[in-house]
Write a structure and sequence with these properties.
The chain is mostly helical. The protein has one domain. Helix content is about 70%, strand content about 0%. It has a two-stranded antiparallel sheet. A hairpin with a 3-residue loop joins strand 1 and strand 2. Helix 5 runs parallel beside helix 16 and helix 16 crosses helix 17. The radius of gyration is 21 Å and the shape is globular. The termini are close together. The N terminus is likely disordered.
């Protein structure tokens, strides 16, 4: 099911258009798989932001990896925020807001804490042996910089910050932000209903400028979670493409934007920070439109396959398992297959996804209670 909202009850599918329900499940799984590919990026520097440049020579393999990880696949987080906002508004009548917030503590906060604990424990364990300690150092996931790279050397205060605010599984920021938006839902709903132009103008500028105040909010969530709320509250059709939508020209425009940004990332002279940011945000928004309205045929084909429908139950397991595992595994793989960066990038995420599905299947069968805690009740 969806990686973020709690698993719907038996009555839920009847409340959503059948194809919309299928579409939401499809994108929940696909977005998680694509997330693994973004986090499996293995060029230098490893940290990806809108303006990230590449320190390695331009070649077909390095170009393709950057084009995918910091370009084509970046639409997925906005889509997930919009889905989450739409569903939270859709099920508003089920219970008072306070009761829904209590439920979200179970479905968002509990998995957040558990997966953060797992990431800390895995990292600490790897640091105890010289060979695997090098994997931790190579992954460079510490938010405290190269001068303080090891979990086993953190002070109590740093350990607490790492556990609750800056988890080793850094993808958990999404759960943290979503919980904040769920808490603030009554105010967000009023803002988008009473003054949508003002709200989206301000939130849009924060998103465009890539401004946020973690752990309180991020610009992406402020725009797209609220967009999902607004679409549902206005009861607008989210399945029929608008009249102006033309899949072919928009897809070409999207790819051209991404090609330009990728070329700039390898440019010998420092490109404009603002230009990189604008290209990234424009491509991100265009990608959401192109993929949401332009991939319906793929959704229909995939959701007719029993194996694919079965896999959608493990979206959250893929989300929880993949970091920091994919980062440490990447360091190990590149040691043995030095010079095979593209091959490692293309194949390793598939192995991580398969491991998450196998682990999820075993946990759900053997200890369903533990599985339910780890996933917030999703896919049970």
């Amino acid at each position: 099911m969806l990686p973020l909202p709690a698993k719907p009850t038996a009555a839920s599918p009847a409340q959503l258009n059948n194809f919309l329900s299928q579409k939401l499940r499809f994108w929940s799984l696909v977005a998680m798989v694509l997330l693994v590919y973004v986090h499996a990026y293995n060029l230098h520097p490893r940290y990806l932001a809108a303006w990230t440049l590449v320190d390695e020579p331009l070649a077909a393999d390095t170009w393709l990896q950057y084009f995918l990880a910091n370009g084509l696949l970046r639409f997925r987080i906005p889509i997930l925020f919009a889905i989450s906002g739409y569903l939270f508004a859709h099920y508003e009548a089920r219970a008072p807001h306070k009761a829904r917030v209590k439920q979200r503590l179970r479905t968002l906060l509990v998995p957040y804490v558990l997966w953060s604990t797992f990431g800390l424990g895995l990292t600490w364990g790897l640091e105890q042996y010289p060979a695997t300690r090098q994997l931790v150092l190579g992954a460079a996931l510490s938010p405290f910089g190269p001068q303080n790279p090891l979990v086993s050397q953190y002070s109590p205060g740093e350990l607490l910050v790492r556990w609750l605010l800056l988890p080793v599984p850094f993808q958990l920021w999404f759960l943290r932000s979503l919980l904040v938006y769920n808490l603030a839902y009554p105010w967000l709903r009023k803002a988008v209903e009473r003054a949508p132009r003002v709200y989206f103008s301000i939130a849009g500028l924060l998103w465009l400028a890539d401004v946020g105040l973690p752990p309180l909010f991020e610009g992406t969530g402020l725009v797209f979670f609220a967009l999902g709320v607004w679409l549902r509250r206005r009861e607008l059709d989210v399945l029929t493409p608008p009249r102006w939508f033309r899949a072919g020209p928009l897809a070409v425009g999207w790819l051209l934007l991404l090609t330009g940004k990728t070329w700039l990332a390898f440019h010998p002279e420092q490109p404009s920070f603002l230009l990189m940011l604008v290209l990234h945000k424009a491509a991100e928004a265009l990608g959401v439109v192109v993929m949401w309205f332009g991939a319906d045929a793929l959704v229909r084909v995939a959701m007719r396959q029993p194996w694919f429908v079965w896999l959608t139950s493990f979206s959250f397991m893929i989300y929880g398992v993949h970091v920091p595992l994919v980062n440490y595994a990447t360091e190990a793989a590149l040691r043995y297959w030095h010079g095979q960066q593209l091959l490692v990038y293309l194949l390793l995420p598939l192995g991580v996804v398969a491991l998450a599905v196998v682990l999820g299947t075993a946990l759900r069968r053997v200890v369903p209670g533990v599985y339910a805690l780890l996933t917030g009740g999703r896919g049970v």
